[in-house]
């Protein structure tokens, strides 16, 4: 089995198009998308259109919830903007997404952790340019009761894999559309493949024209997003 794993597109169509072009020369048994699909200042509707056409297994992230219901406490200006750009059909699709899913008997999909789409899992959120790594005990606690060999999550925008002591593989593909702190502006996704020796992960960064995406964000009134998209060094505080 060979699976393409996308997460955190955040409405960045030029980044998504670069990833889809990279995937086009490959063969996959499935595509999965781990949430936060549209909430961003580049092209929310275009992102929804492309993701809906993939035939992928998609789940909801926290920003998807906030875009569907902008009265929720944590919903912000970016979610209200994104909602205003979506068609009724796209909003219905977003509202229909479940918080978790499985792919056969092999993979479990969530956005943050299995129980909470706002909680980071494999990495804690940034403190400046520092990311605190949780202990194996803390990571394993969230995986209790999950029987699948591969567990996928997103939310932190940090591409990373780890294995628990029992052999289960946990992977975060990073973000397709919004890079922060780490200094890589490339669009990120992952390929997970079951080979003779077991599950193998490739974390892939795809270059794209970040200037086009940054200018679209700025033209829509989100200057901080433009700076982050161009260079991938900004912290989340820049995205107001």
Automatic annotation (TrEMBL):
<dbReference type="GO" id="GO:0016791">
    <property type="term" value="F:phosphatase activity"/>
</dbReference>
<dbReference type="Pfam" id="PF12850">
    <property type="entry name" value="Metallophos_2"/>
</dbReference>
<dbReference type="InterPro" id="IPR024654">
    <property type="entry name" value="Calcineurin-like_PHP_lpxH"/>
</dbReference>
<protein>
    <submittedName>
        <fullName>Phosphoesterase, MJ0936 family</fullName>
    </submittedName>
</protein>
<feature type="domain" description="Calcineurin-like phosphoesterase">
    <location>
        <begin position="1"/>
        <end position="193"/>
    </location>
</feature>
<dbReference type="GO" id="GO:0005737">
    <property type="term" value="C:cytoplasm"/>
</dbReference>
<dbReference type="InterPro" id="IPR050126">
    <property type="entry name" value="Ap4A_hydrolase"/>
</dbReference>
<comment type="similarity">
    <text>Belongs to the metallophosphoesterase superfamily. YfcE family.</text>
</comment>
<dbReference type="InterPro" id="IPR011152">
    <property type="entry name" value="Pesterase_MJ0912"/>
</dbReference>
<dbReference type="InterPro" id="IPR029052">
    <property type="entry name" value="Metallo-depent_PP-like"/>
</dbReference>
């Amino acid at each position: 089995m060979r699976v393409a794993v996308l997460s955190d597109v955040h409405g960045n169509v030029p980044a998504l198009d670069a990833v889809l072009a990279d995937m086009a020369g490959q063969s996959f048994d499935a595509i999965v998308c781990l949430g936060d699909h549209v909430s961003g200042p580049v092209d929310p509707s275009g992102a929804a259109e492309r993701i809906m056409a993939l035939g992928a297994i998609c789940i909801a992230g926290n920003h998807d919830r906030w875009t569907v219901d902008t009265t929720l406490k944590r919903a912000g200006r970016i979610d209200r903007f994104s909602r205003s750009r979506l068609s009724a059909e796209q909003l219905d699709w977003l509202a229909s997404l479940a918080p978790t899913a499985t792919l056969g008997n092999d993979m479990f999909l969530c956005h943050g952790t299995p129980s909470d789409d706002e909680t980071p899992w494999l990495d804690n959120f940034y403190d400046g340019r520092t990311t605190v790594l949780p202990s194996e005990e803390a990571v394993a606690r969230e995986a209790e009761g999950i029987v699948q060999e591969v567990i996928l999550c997103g939310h932190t925008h940090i591409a990373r894999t780890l294995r628990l002591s029992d052999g289960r593989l946990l992977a975060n593909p990073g973000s397709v559309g919004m890079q922060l702190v780490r200094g890589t502006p490339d669009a990120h996704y992952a390929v997970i493949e079951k080979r003779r020796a077991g599950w193998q992960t490739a974390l892939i960064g795809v270059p794209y024209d970040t200037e086009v995406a940054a200018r679209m964000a700025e033209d829509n009134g989100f200057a901080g997003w433009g700076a982050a998209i161009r260079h991938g060094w900004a912290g989340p505080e820049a995205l107001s």
